[in-house]
Amino acid sequence: MGPLRSRGRGLAPFFSDFFVYSGMIKQDVLRTYVSEEGSPFKKIIECYRSPGVHAITVFRFGHWLLARPLPVKLLLTPLYLWLDHRMRAKWGIQIQRRARIGAGFYIGHYGGIFVSDRATIGENCNISQGVTVGVAGEGARRGAPQIGNNVYMGPGAKINGKIRIGNNVKIGPNAVVTHNIPDDALVHVRPMQVVVFPGRYARDDASPCNLTTPRRSR
Questions:
Q1: Tens digits of residue pLDDT in 106-156
Q2: CATH topology for the 12-187 domain
Q3: What's the 3-state SS for the chain?
């Protein structure tokens, strides 16, 4: 899941890590490619335009830089910081580069996404808009989630604290997860409820402004 590798000596570790990270990026892009419809050319264009592909590629680049020699860091870190700022400002995606994320990471929609630098996310996971994977707790219980493989995180989900999310888990929209979740589980919030007020909104002047403002009696 994107390990921080030792520097070693010579160019061998450099090229070894390069092929590892490029392979992970290939699997990330492939997740977006297969999700799109149309001709192969159209799919390639959509991958090129995808904010999710941009964000995860910048994350992989920043994560790769962490274990580079100092001269390489000094040369390339400014570029990473600029790209990371672009992802935050333009797409609303903040994935801190010390996080550990497995290959095949898919970001379906952009906006309001945050992944802590302490988080661990497995392979072939999906993250949606408005999702937070963050730090919570105090003392020895303070930490970030460890998320397994094949996990779906629905829009607005909040996953916080030193917890473990198993494999093959689906977390529904707006769910707040602060406890361990076993494998093959579904996490969801209570379905919506409809409350009916007979006659309250049945008025001739039922404009958007008047629907929620009852008429005062004189």
A1: 998 999 999 999 999 999 999 999 999 999 988 888 999 999 999 999 999
A2: UDP N-Acetylglucosamine Acyltransferase; domain 1 (2.160.10)
A3: CCCCCCCCCCCHHHHHHHHHHHHHHHHHHHHHHHHCCCCHHHHHHHHHHCHHHHHHHHHHHHHHHCCCCHHHHHHHHHHHHHHHHHHHHHHCEEECCCCEECCCCEECCCCCEEECCCCEECCCCEECCCCEEECECCHHHCECCEECCCCEECCCCEEECCCEECCCCEECCCCEECCCECCCCEECCCCCCCCCCCCCCCCCCCCCCCCCCCCCCC
Give all strands of the β-sheet with 100-101 in edge-to-edge order.
100-101, 120-121, 146-147, 164-165
Q: Is 184 left (phi over 0), alpha (psi -120 to 50) or beta?
A: left
d(CA 182, CA 148): 10
Asked whether the beta carbons of 151 and 171 are under 8 A apart, the reply is yes
User: Could you give the CA distance from residue 46 to residue 50 in angstroms, rounded to a whole number?
Assistant: 6
pLDDT on residue 60: 96
pTM of the model: 0.81
Alpha-carbon span 161 to 50, nearest angstrom: 30
